[in-house]
Amino acid sequence: MIFNDSCNTKLFEAWVTKVWIKKLEPGQIVIMNNAAFHRS
Length: 40
Fold this sequence. Notes:
Elements: H1 9-23
């Protein structure tokens, strides 16, 4: 997924549900920083 702008909650949530969650495997750990869009 490529975008040419700053990230926001709507974009982050779309990426998580359509791309990232499908690639995660049981036992993997996700670490996120304190970006505002991560807190949604």
